[in-house]
Design a protein that fits this description.
The structure holds two protein chains of two kinds. Chain A is α+β, with helices and mostly antiparallel strands. Chain A is built from 15 helices and 20 strands. Chain B folds into two domains: 5-157, Uridine Diphospho-n-acetylenolpyruvylglucosamine Reductase, domain 3 (2-Layer Sandwich); 161-254, no CATH class. Classes of the chains: A alpha+beta, B alpha+beta. The interface between A and B is large, with 92 and 81 residues.
Chain lengths: 481, 294
Amino acid sequence: MTVIDTAIDLDAVARALRTRLRHDQVRDSPTLRNLYRHDASNMTGSAGIVCFAESTEDVQACVQVAADMGVPFMARGSGTGLAGGAVPPPDAIVISTTKMNKILSVDEVNRIAWVEPGVLNLDLSKQIAHLGVHFAPDPSSQQTCSIGGNVANNSGGPHCLADGVTNAHIHGMEVVLPDGSISVLGGEEPEPDGLDLRGVFVGSEGMFGVATKICVRLMQNPPDVATMLMDFGSVAEGANLVSDIIASGIVPAAVEMMDQLCLIAVEEFIHAGLPVDQAAALLIEVVGPPAGVAADVERIFELASARGVGTIRVAADDEERALLWKGRKSAFGAIANIMPNYYLHDTVVPRHKLAEVLDQIYEIVERHDLRVLNVFHAGDGNLHPLILFDGSVEGVSERVHAAGREIVKASVDAGGVLSGEHGIGLEKRDLMPLMFSETDLSAQADLRRAFDPQLISNPDKVLPNPATCGEIHSAPEGAWI
Amino acid sequence: MDLTLEDFAAAVGSTGPVAIAGLGTRSRPLSDVRVVHAPIGIEWIEPAEMTIRCGAGTPVDEVDAALAEHGQQVAVHSGGTVGGALAVGQSGIRRLAYGAMRDALLQANYVNAAGKLVKAGGPTVKNVSGFDLCRLLVGSHGTLGFIGDVILRTRPKASFEQWFTSDRDPWELLTGLFRPTSVLWDGATTWVLLEGDDRDVAEMAERFLLTAVSSGPELPTGGRWSMAPSELVSLRVASPGSFVAEIGVGVVHHTRPRPERSPDPVQADLHARIKQEFDPTGRLNPGIDALSVR
């Protein structure tokens, strides 16, 4: 293992970078370094030098300088990650891919596109909408998150229930490996020779290198869509309906749940006529050819009525559908009306444990004298409890973190996993032993070392390192250690 | 399962060359090497979770039959054992709609070269907890570890399915039909498999003038080629009458072996480093190279 020299000569690194990139691409002003100290999590690191790459060659130049000088580097897309995956390691070279934002080619017949990593998720779907296709992964941050970031985090979103997460929508990518070499992992062909290096690169949180061109799978837009909002007198009834629907052989395009506090907050924000007096609401979307959609809707109504559904609102047109989805996607903005701060969690539990774990979450949060709002991908069992707090209250962050740890543990104990779509990053790095043994973690470390023998590509993330755990340089402000 | 994971790990042991065998449908067992077999049997099926847990030595046919009782199926290539199908990593002809087989593997317990059990992945469909070792195992031909048991993602069986033929251009059908399950083409005839509500299937068949047939085409078995889907059109001239191509996917079932191609040196190096990390003495399935095996 290479020990990264903590006394990095940033001036020397900047000089080396400026021999390979234009001067305006290599920035080390205090203001800019400060701007790139963090992502959308509450953790901060320290960016050494920020480079704005415009091509594969630029990325390769940055990585080669890093490898030659033994300096850590970190690729960064839009910085919307919530787990600290894009919090820079100490004095790292931050390689921003935001200027690599071209859609390189679209084959609408075979439904394949090549894009640069800085293309924004929603921009891709918008720009190809006239071809009758879209990119399926749709994280809530899709207006601002980049496809390179989606690849790094294997991002999800509401519509991954039927179509799968990012990994299922990436055919391949050109990458710059941590030693500066360039290769294409996977590709347009379905069965490339050898190991599925494409598959392991997706979700590697920037620790296996930098994706510079990405080959994505596009999906046909459905001919018919039905969007329903159903409310329930108890969270458990709504949660149990989710299992009933799946067990009956229907896989909706999306099944989202909002609890009462969420409904109230969102209604105040967007005035969509949400059922604020009910304990929970489910937003269910079914897509496909018309007869199949109609049959699924009828069956879902039957199952919902057996679970004591209150009212069922079916979107009459695209405008009402957009309003219902806006309700779901505005939850985070609406919270400001209740409390100044929130901490968003991301765990997964088996669907049939949803009601039980939600009960536990309410109990945990109440015990820590906090409030929680739940808005989540119920169809996937992917919980997103938002712990609400006022950061100005002394000692509150300890309570928020303690409650969070208990929620993660309760999810894993229920047969779930640490993260469904946000990733491990720094946030949950030291919780990995809740799910994996030392041998399991060592296998993951082996894979990482094969890709990055120098351990310079976004180090200190994902894998707990007994040797450095607790040391100040690897514990950015805000991290759980 | 007929064997516990611990017993399986003990059988693999930590020294000396060892090979794993299933039913021998995909490859012949290595000679002169001690052979082990993965546990056989279905542990559980959770229809509401759309998951199944079984030993890697379980025949795919047994899994298919058990899931059919719940109206479900799994996108694992038919024949042989579950572990064998995953180790080889090839998808079935319904990949166009079902996605690649590799996406069906949620969790695997495998035995590493040191004879220890390792858990890869997790039990839920959505999971981004750590590096995705499941992707590494699928298609690794048992060179990095021997899979003991797996949790697979299932999917509902459609209420109706029907094969059709057409003399239309296959790409016209790929574009016009809504998410066909399979579009196959031999250069002259196109076969289409449609699934879903019978009224939707009938409507599409009428609109595109499809002729119902009892099954898809016989697939040539001389070679399995992998091509970019946009290149398949070249086969019409290059190999008339000797192939069936999966349109929109790129797998070609050919009468002739796949043309040789040389690996990218960067990837060859990466493969060597991964093998070195996972099996430094080369004891697992010795002599097999995941990069060159067919």
